[in-house]
Amino acid sequence: MTARIDGYAAAVLALARAEGLLGVVVDELYAIGHAFEGSAELRRTLSDIRVPLERKRGVIGELVSGKASALTAALVDLIVATGRATDLSAIADRLAESAAAEENRVVAEVRCAQSLDSATVARLEESLGRATGKDIEVKTVVDPSVIGGIVARVGDVVIDGSLRHRFGQLRDSLAGGADG
Amino acid sequence: MLSLLAQLPSLAQETVEEADGAKLIIPDIEELVAGIIAFLIVFVVIWVWVRPHISRMIAHRQETISGRLTEAEQAKAEAAKLLEGYRKQLGDARKEAGDIVEEARRSAESVRSELVERARREAGEITRRAREEATAEKDRAGAEVRDQVASLSLELAQKVVAEALDEHAQQDLVDRFIEEVTEMGE
């Protein structure tokens, strides 16, 4: 599983670099991969073996066209065509990590309720870099379930400053109080 | 005797021959001698031949009687012993029967009390379990209600908060996060 994702990520990395569009492909693939992750219905359709491959390619092609470069669209189509649509977000993660690692940077996955402007991203990169002692590259994922605030993940470390997390804590303490 | 009978007619002539009165009572010498001799012969014969027979018979008879007596005595003693034995056996049997009845009564009593005790224990156990179940059920229902209330109010709060969050508030939350992370690094 991991080896396969590594292989796909390495292939996409090599292709994107050969086309001279590494930065664009990495960002777009990351956005697409996590957009898929956010939709349960889309995930179900992609993992359902009864849905024919052509239909899956059609659905995804429609979603991707116009929003991404031709190369990214072609690479996504390739991944779906080989039947690895469910691995798309994992491949995107690995690709981003590999691309960042080449510049001695570490990817921080930042989830927030709405998209962040570039100034905010720059401030986040700086503060996360100071907190972890690494050169950070922030990849944002828009995830409405966060409600408000930010969930940042750097490797295995998760810094959760989201309202979702606060509500979770509140729920836990209420449940704990009910038990006592 | 014969001679006396023979002399009866001469008795009638007593008055006639009064002078011979003594002669009438005292027999003739020959007769007397012959009688004595005959008597002696008979006596000797009886003494020698018959007496031992008779005495033997008597002895035999006595022996027999005494033997029977002894036997009877023995039989009596035996009968008494048997009777005693039977009485003893009867007594033993009565005692045993009494023991058996007593034993049966005791065991019936113990079985009864055991059954009663077990029934009481089981009833207690059932009551206790029912009470525990009722308590657990009550607790569970209470916890469920609390959970539902908690999750409903949280859901409501989340909705309210999500609606209240405009772009500015979102940006504030992001800024606060950046501040906190910056503080972590220092």
Structure description:
The complex is a heterodimer of chains A (180) and B (186). Chain A has eight helices and four strands, in the order ααααααβαβββα. Chain A is an alpha+beta fold and 180 residues long. The radius of gyration of chain A is 18 Å and the shape is globular. In chain A, 32% of the residues are buried. Helix content of chain B is 91%, strand content 0%. Chain B is built from five helices and no strands. Chain B has helices at 2-6, 8-12, 21-25, 29-164, 167-185. Chain B is rod-shaped and about 205 Å long. The interface between A and B is medium-sized, with 30 and 27 residues.
Number of helices of chain B: 5
Largest sheet of chain B: none
Helix content of chain B: over 70%
Q: From the alpha carbons, calculate the radius of gyration of chain B and give it in angstroms.
A: 70 Å
Lay out the secondary structure.
The complex is a heterodimer of chains A (180) and B (186).
Chain A: H1 2-19, H2 22-38, H3 40-47, H4 53-64, H5 70-81, H6 88-102, E1 106-112, H7 118-132, E2 136-142, E3 149-154, E4 157-162, H8 163-179
Parallel strand pairs in A: 1-2
Antiparallel strand pairs in A: 1-3, 3-4
Chain B: H1 2-6, H2 8-12, H3 21-25, H4 29-164, H5 167-185
Brief account:
Chain A is an alpha+beta fold and about 180 residues long. Chain A contains eight helices and four strands.
